Amino acid sequence: VLEASRHEFRLRACGNQQQYQQQVEALGIDDLVSFPGPIAYEQALAEMLGADALMIFQAATCNWQIPAKLFEYAKAQKPILAWTDEQGDTAQMLGKMTNAGYVAPLMDADKIAQCLRHFIDADQWDPANPG
User: Fold this and answer.
1) pLDDT at res. 122
2) Minimal CA–CA distance to 14: which of 46, 37, 33?
3) Which residues, in sequence order, are bridge partners of residue 9?
4) 108, CA 20 to 30 Å: which among 17, 27, 63, 114?
């Protein structure tokens, strides 16, 4: 379903970049995932507004925390791919904020794949705008 010529996942200034880069390379998906470094806030906002979707990664151990980034993402009015516990506060808030949210547990590759497939099948990914 995912093609490097049409899909790109940018994990900007994600921390632990070296570890993640090694994992991405080991999985053979380094043509889909990039790790660009930090940029100025204004540039980050412009990039966010130009994206087809925005992602949040949150472990179930943080169920009682809502990242401030979620509110920026909601203001951008873009679909949000939230890899977080479905019972956590982030998923619950996302359900109240927008109908364009896709939620799957961070550690459940099958559910994440299912969400990505639904997102792509919903034609929300613009192949003419890979970034």
Assistant:
1) 81
2) 37
3) 33
4) 17
- Please provide the average confidence, as pLDDT, over all residues in the chain: 88
The length of the chain is 131
User: Has residue 131 got a pLDDT over 50?
Assistant: no
**CB-CB contact of 4 with 32 (8 Å):** yes
| pLDDT value for 124 | 56
What DSSP string describes 12-64? TT-SSHHHHHHHHHHHT-TTTEE------HHHHHHHHHHSS-EEEE--GGGTT
Copy the structure tokens of residue 8: 């790109």
pLDDT band, very low/low/confident/very high, at 121 (cuts 50, 70, 90): confident
Q: pLDDT tens for residues 80-104?
A: 999 999 999 999 999 888 667 899 9
Show the tokens assigned to 81.
């791919």
Contact 94, 70 (CB under 8 A): yes
What gap in Å lies between CA 78 and CA 49, rounded to an integer? 8
